[in-house]
């Protein structure tokens, strides 16, 4: 027994030392990146075997004297989609819906599919970006309102896009789609008889105790200011019908809390996450689950989702087998920087 206790003690000390080394080296990577990009605020969270580590550099805004930390609020943008796909997977587990079901009978009133589209598009097609439906034209929306482009997306415009579609030109081929995830949010509302906001709180935010993940009201003191690629201030998108595609705001602490639930084995969120990790789309360039990219090499399978709003960038990544996860949040739209950060962290520390 004494020998067993000694071995356990050595393992615990070894794991602790490993975690401290990872966090120290990760902090060094983030610090170096911030020194090269001093105007960009960065917040990073890391979880491994249920141990959490955080590091952050920069200020809430260029004018602020307040340091960014693990509680600072960012726009997670399209990372919202993995929350939506988790809700869809929970509905599958609850036998309220199947991934292979056609969307026809799940769409709200007002949607009338053309005959050529009936019994064609599956729930999984929407969630893996292969439905072939035309998407929202963000270029035109930005011209109309550069600060709040989604403000002009309404139920009327969405139904018009879907109802006027006569042909799914690229059905079965990957094409990133925000309208697909907007429809999934509406489908969730129909099958549960509740708002997307309420479903999200009841099934993910409250069970995981994600107390600082914001939906409609994000007027808080510790919110970051977003900046476009040219350095201009960019407003956070306001909540509307497109919420399920990308309007959630959160911080490193809450997103690590979410990853903790995902990596666990005994809750509805983790069980649903496993459903989303199944391959629903594959070509020579990518493998897709429900809302999440699946990347594999000789030793690892990792799950990745990025998010870019008009003024902020983010990326989340986890490895279920090795039991780690990472969230990276930037207060500037800079997809290259957030991808470079993840690549360096993964290649030097986590591979």
From TrEMBL:
Which keywords accompany this UniProt record? Signal
The UniProt entry, under Pfam families, shows:
Beta-lactamase
Lipid metabolism recorded as keyword:
no
Boundaries of every Beta-lactamase-related domain copy: 36-338
Entry-linked Gene3D superfamilies? DD-peptidase/beta-lactamase superfamily
The signal peptide annotation in the UniProt record is 1-19
| Name of the protein described by the UniProt record | Beta-lactamase
């Amino acid at each position: 027994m004494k020998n067993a206790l000694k071995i356990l003690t050595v393992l615990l000390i070894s794991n602790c030392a490993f975690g401290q080394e990872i966090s120290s080296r990760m902090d060094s990577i983030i610090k170096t990146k911030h020194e090269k990009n001093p105007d960009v605020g960065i917040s990073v969270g890391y979880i491994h075997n249920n141990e959490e580590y955080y590091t952050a550099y920069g200020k809430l805004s260029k004018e602020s004297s307040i340091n960014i930390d693990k509680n600072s609020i960012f726009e997670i943008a399209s990372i919202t989609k993995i929350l939506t796909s988790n809700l869809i997977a929970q509905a599958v587990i609850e036998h309220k819906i199947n991934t292979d079901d056609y969307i026809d009978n799940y769409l709200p009133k007002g949607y009338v599919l053309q005959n050529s589209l009936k019994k064609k598009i599956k729930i999984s097609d929407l969630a893996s970006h292969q439905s072939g439906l035309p998407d929202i034209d963000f270029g035109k929306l930005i011209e109309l309102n550069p600060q709040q482009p989604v403000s002009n997306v309404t139920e009327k415009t969405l139904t018009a896009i879907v109802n006027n579609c006569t042909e799914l030109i690229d059905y079965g081929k990957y094409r990133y789609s925000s309208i697909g995830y907007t429809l999934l949010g509406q489908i969730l509302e129909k099958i549960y008889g509740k708002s997307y906001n309420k479903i999200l709180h009841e099934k993910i935010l409250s069970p995981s105790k994600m107390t600082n993940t914001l939906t409609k009201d994000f007027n808080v003191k510790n919110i970051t200011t977003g900046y476009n690629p040219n350095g201009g201030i960019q407003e956070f998108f306001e909540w509307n019908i497109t919420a399920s595609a990308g309007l959630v705001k959160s911080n490193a602490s809450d997103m690590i809390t979410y990853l903790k639930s995902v990596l666990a084995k005994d809750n509805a969120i983790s069980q649903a996450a496993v459903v989303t990790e199944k391959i629903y789309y594959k070509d020579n360039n990518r493998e897709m689950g429900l809302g999440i990219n699946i990347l594999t090499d000789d030793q690892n399978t990792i799950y990745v989702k990025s998010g870019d709003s008009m003024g902020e960038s983010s990326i989340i990544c986890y490895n279920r087998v090795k039991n780690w996860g990472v969230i990276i949040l930037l207060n500037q739209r800079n997809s290259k920087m957030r991808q470079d950060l993840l690549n360096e962290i993964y290649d030097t520390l986590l591979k």
